[in-house]
User: Fold this.
Amino acid sequence: MAVQAKDKDASDKARAVENTLAQIEKMYGKGAIMRLGDRAPVTDIPALSTGSIALDSALGVGGVPRGRIIEVFGPESSGKTTLAYHIVASAQKDGGTAAFIDAEHSVDPEYARNLGVDVDSLLLSQPDSGEQALEITEMLVRSGALAVVVIDSVAALVPKAELEGEMGDSHMGLQARLMSQAMRKLTGVVSKTGTCLIFINQIRQKIGVMFGSPETTTGGRALKFYTSVRLDIRRIGAIKEGDTFIGNRTKVKVVKNKVSSPFRVAEFDILYGHGISREGELVELGVEHKIIDKSGSWFSYGDLRIGQGRENARLFLRENSDVAATIEKLVREKLGLTRPTADNSADSSPTVADAAAVSPRAAVPDKAARASDPTPPVAPARGRSRVRAGA
Assistant:
């Protein structure tokens, strides 16, 4: 009797659950609630390439995830906006629409075009206040038609009360409350529409900090909690051509990652006017994964010498797109990045789809031909050097 009573009680509870689920779906629509096991398993998180192979690998899903909120923060001139431009270019080349909320009023269309952004189709807003910027963002995201929305930057989202007040007035916590409300409203709709929402943020110094990092980001703490990925981008060195600085060595640390393992680090070059150097990454990753051989200062791919010194090897790959495409295909296979990446850099050449048509040995000279000419082909020697910042 006790067993029968227990079974009946369980049956009544199961029936009550089913009735409740049916009522919820009737009121709020199908999909408002479901059993987790009824959903199709998520085996692949859609992502947008960052323009850096190393950073795509460090993020664990091949780029910044769609349907999530992303924060990119770092010091001034560290490459935050450059990284955002590359992501926008990637979204556009995948057939998506992108929007740029320029709260800092500092967008550079020519530089964006050099990085691969289709500025003619890019949606641009330069709002008058923080409320207006976030309302425009919400409308764009709710449309469900955008692949990525970039807000540059959180520090420039000035509340109306502060704009209408006088210089020197105290407005404690206004921006933090504004951002907290925006996060509550945006998180759900971003997930439903699959839009990648990127906040660029600045850093400030805490007062009176004796232990730990004195750095913090603007806009309060809500953004830190609601983001799925936080990227800390820093300039760690300078690249010179003779006495002229031509770029920066950049390090990005994934300080928060809800879609893969956090705390991974990626390093790459950002060249002034060209953005992230794809060829420089190919040289480094090719050597790391034994696709490119390094003997002394010489770099070789198979029997082909591609340059003496890292900068000459990079220039050789830039000028020989078929070799670069073949090496990129092999590097991506080693890293497990099989999804094609949009070619976001102006100094980049073909896409991975083009690389598939090139044999890994296609650029290697025929051995019989090499026997008659013992001198291997090399890239022209050019005097480029890389120095640390402040050197």
